Amino acid sequence: MIKTITSLLLLLAAFAIVSSCHSNKKESTSNVTYQCPMQCEGDVSSDKPGTCAICKMDLQPVEADTQEAKEISDLSIYNLPSVWTNQDNHAIELKELKGSVLVMVMIYTSCKAACPRLVADMRAIEKQIPEKNKNMVKLVLVSIDPETDTPERLKQFAIENKMDADQWVFLRGSKADTREFAAVLAVNYKKISPIDFSHSNIISVFNQQGELVHQKEGLGIDLEKTVGKILELVQ
Questions:
Q1: Cystine bridges: which residues (predicted)?
Q2: Any known ligand binding at 111?
């Protein structure tokens, strides 16, 4: 498991570097404000150029999204640029989940072997989260079979399995984005027939900033440490 988490951290760092390089090449469309370079007045800013009332230095331009960028570390999955579709057929970026504790697995809805047990584990985790904390957690199931798992199919699967409350999120993406995200989670999968896949069975927990804090591999496993980590994060 240590090797898995180390590999994940290295992959996230690599994605962050690529994303950063790409961002530097783009023309900025962000709103710009102006602040004292010495921060004499803390985070006080102006929407116009001028001078600091205290040290008289020229105010320097600051992009409006600079603070948000600072809040996301290089190891956060929120650096990933992929766009997904959820069970309600809405486009979503991972960074829109920022602020919630994420519990993630990768499945496919036509699976008859391992996935039902993974789903059962996710439901068992959800039951152990106190009602007062459930709005702080997102239980995310990412499809490894986006061709079959349309938004309509994901919605139906959610309803059939009583996983249609607000804390449940089902995602599908392009084949390339799915493969990339699986690599980030250290999940291996392979199509072995027209309707079947072999795949890793890993439950991953991410903190509110999108950083990996816990992983557990296996089916029907003891979930005590996983639930304990989630509860620790939402306290």
A1: 111-115
A2: yes
